[in-house]
Write a structure and sequence with these properties.
The protein is an alpha/beta fold. The protein is 32% helix and 14% strand. A six-stranded parallel sheet has the order 2-1-5-3-6-4.
Length: 204
C-alpha cells in the first residue's frame, strides 16, 4: 500500500472509514447485466458501475477496451439463445420495454464518459451488431457531483436501476441506489456545503 494512502475495503473499494457494504443489497432480477467498463474508469473514486454490479447477483463487470481479449464473452454475446441488447441511445435505438420474447435477457451497459463509451462501441464489432435500446426521455440524474452532457444523462448505476425497474415491476430500485446516494452525500459532506454550492449546484 502506498505511503499515506488509506486502507480500503476489499469488497466496495471505499476507504474503511466510509465502507458502503452494509448498504449494498443482493438483488436477483431475471435480466442479467453485463457492464463493460473502460479501463480509465476503474480507479475513479465515484465508481458507480462497481456499486451496480455488487448489488446484483446476476451481473458482471468486465474492465476492458477490447472484447477480443475476452473470447468467452464474445461467444456469449453471439449466442442466439439469449436476448442480448445494448443500452445505448443510438439513432436507431428503440425504447426499452417488456416484450413477448421468452429467451433469457442480457442487458449490456457501457461505463465511461460519452467519448469513451462511443470508443468502446467503435472498437468492438460484436457490440455494434447488438440491437440498441434506450431509456425513456425526461429522467433526471441524482448524480450531483458531475457536469452532465445533457439533462437526462444518468450514471451507470442509475441507468441500470431504471432499466431493471422498467423490465421488472416491483424491482427494489431504491435499495440498489442506496449506496450510491450515501456515496454522493458523503462526498458533498466532505467538501463542505459552500464549496459544493460554488462548484456544482449551478452545473445541474
Amino acid at each position: 500500500m502506498p505511503q499515506g494512502s488509506r486502507p480500503r475495503c476489499k469488497a466496495c473499494a471505499r476507504p474503511l472509514s466510509h465502507c458502503l457494504c452494509h448498504l449494498i443489497p443482493r438483488l436477483w432480477p431475471d435480466t442479467q447485466l453485463l457492464v463493460i467498463q473502460h479501463p480509465d474508469e476503474a480507479s475513479h473514486a465515484l465508481n458507480t458501475a462497481r456499486l451496480l454490479v455488487a448489488g446484483l447477483v446476476n451481473a458482471h463487470l468486465l474492465v476492458t477496451e477490447s472484447l477480443a481479449d475476452h473470447p468467452d464473452w464474445v461467444r456469449r454475446l453471439s449466442d442466439s439463445g439469449w436476448r442480448n441488447e445494448l443500452l445505448f441511445p443510438g439513432p436507431d435505438a428503440r425504447e426499452l420495454g417488456v416484450a413477448c420474447d421468452t429467451r433469457p435477457r442480457r442487458l449490456i451497459l457501457l461505463d465511461g464518459t460519452w467519448r469513451k463509451a462511443r470508443k468502446l462501441l467503435y472498437l468492438n464489432p460484436i457490440l455494434q451488431s447488438l440491437p440498441q435500446v434506450r431509456l425513456a426521455s425526461g429522467l433526471s440524474s441524482r448524480y450531483r457531483l458531475r457536469k452532465v452532457p445533457h439533462a437526462d444523462a444518468l450514471s451507470t448505476i442509475e441507468a441500470g436501476a431504471e432499466a431493471l425497474s422498467l423490465l421488472h415491476p416491483g424491482f427494489e430500485r431504491d435499495r440498489l441506489l442506496a449506496p450510491f446516494e450515501a456515496l454522493i452525500d458523503g462526498q458533498i459532506s466532505a467538501m463542505g456545503e459552500q464549496r459544493y454550492q460554488r462548484n456544482y449546484r449551478d452545473r445541474q
